[in-house]
Amino acid sequence: MTEMLKGIAASDGVAVAKAYLLVQPDLSFETVSVEDTNAEEARLDAALEASQNELSVIREKAVDSLGEEAAQVFDAHLMVLADPEMVGQIKETIRAKKTNAEAGLKEVTDMFITLFENMDDNPYMQERAADIRDVTKRVLANLLGKKLPNPASINEESVVIAHDLTPSDTAQLDKKFVKAFVTNIGGRTSHSAIMARTLEIAAVLGTNNITELVKDGDVIAANGITGEVIINPTEDQIAAFKAAGEAYAKQKAEWELLKDAQTVTADGKHFELAANIGTPKDVEGVNANGAEAVGLYRTEFLYMDSQDFPTEDEQYEAYKAVLEGMNGKPVVVRTMDIGGDKELPYFDMPHEMNPFLGFRALRISISETGDAMFRTQIRALLRASVHGQLRIMFPMVALLTEFRKAKAVYDEEKAKLQAEGVAVADNIQVGIMIEIPAAAMLADQFAKEVDFFSIGTNDLIQYTMAADRMNEQVSYLYQPYNPSILRLINNVIKAAHAEGKWAGMCGEMAGDQTAVPLLVGMGLDEFSMSATSVLRTRSLMKKLDTKKMQELAQRALTECATMEEVLELEKEYLDFD
């Protein structure tokens, strides 16, 4: 029987293929009293080690297929497995209650999950609850000798159907065979959606009950552009979906023709399209997709992939590789943004209830604790500057005094290197990432001292709306087109231009096809996004008339009170397909 569903369009693409149900194994168990608790602890250790090995393999695959940034979610999972407090409590429960490893594991992890989930005012801890739940499932499966679903084993064209896809599930999808996936829950900002866009696999999330309606072998038609899903479509419906898929493929082929083109609007205005990277090897994708710059190089992955602080020479080689790989095109390097969800095992950081709002990023760099680490990074960057067009960006700046302190370190290290006879480029721009509302509001003062702004919308929206974009219960508050967000962005752009400086954007919003017309109208100079979004965005910009977009932006800023009103208004100005 044919059934139609509507979900959230999470990743572009159209597919018609047989359903592959990703079924979770039965992980139920009996609580058993034991005498030999040492044997149970040994079973636990073996399951933890097996889980660690599995996740390490999945992480490596994720780095290759998704890049370093997307793979970092597995670092959080690996940290859970190695958490001495939690593992210690599980073993203590096994000993004290003389119970089997399964029961000890479940009791302690359930306690942590409940504790973290009840922290309504702490999105970071709620996200850790999800990590613990995923890891517990894997350890429990290893204790019980059960196998978790293995998406990597899919070897024919399929549409994956699941209640939800964990990051480890998504990272194992092979786009050669998996043409789309459809889930009961999830949204555009969930980890699985972000990974799907990187993999270029169509995805429709949040259908509520597709797993109850589908069985293996059913034919599924899924449209990740519109959010439409049809179970066992008719011949006519299949033909319509295939036509939509062919149209999308044709559109992508047309985008490819723009790889070597300049990014100009219909009326000839140029904008810079850049790409975000996490490692030097990501530069290949930047060039393959025709980006005009690297708008964000996240250097924290240098630290996260190392067993100890990376040396000055190690960092120099990485920065040099990126600058040379870009052949003189601009490269914006963000100084280390550790803290929050990015911890280093070799760097002792304080335990914080909400590390996203705590000791992280530039706050560490300009502290006594992080001073040596920061100076090493600045020296490496300055040495590498002669190999390309370097721009240095400081993250998580709230106060002008923070920028001044960081800039003073930069000036001191530059003077030292020059005194040592080391060549340093004389055209290095130094700017800040605008991701804290305080800095956005005071942009006019910052603009007098910085060379540029890059707006980090992911955090700016979260901090402005007080809503974690990964928390589905409050995801409705993550509103990129809310007039309050647009006004903050406009304030930053206008402040930069008033001082003759440029303003860019390096959050997901920069490649959002709904946001781009508004940002063009506001006069944003540089758009930095996932490399796979560059050509599509260039194609869109070719159709835009800047004067019309300026009128759209002005009306959105002055007439609209809600995100919905902004979206309705935009429809009046975009009359092309």
From TrEMBL:
The keyword Transferase applies. Residues 6-128 form the Phosphotransferase system enzyme I N-terminal domain. One of its GO terms (biological process) is phosphoenolpyruvate-dependent sugar phosphotransferase system. Keywords: Cytoplasm, Kinase, Magnesium, Metal-binding, Phosphotransferase system, Pyruvate, Sugar transport, Transferase, Transport. Phosphoenolpyruvate binds at residues 298, 334, 458-459, 469. It is found in: Cytoplasm. Homodimer. This is Phosphoenolpyruvate-protein phosphotransferase. It comes from Streptococcus sanguinis. The gene is ptsP.
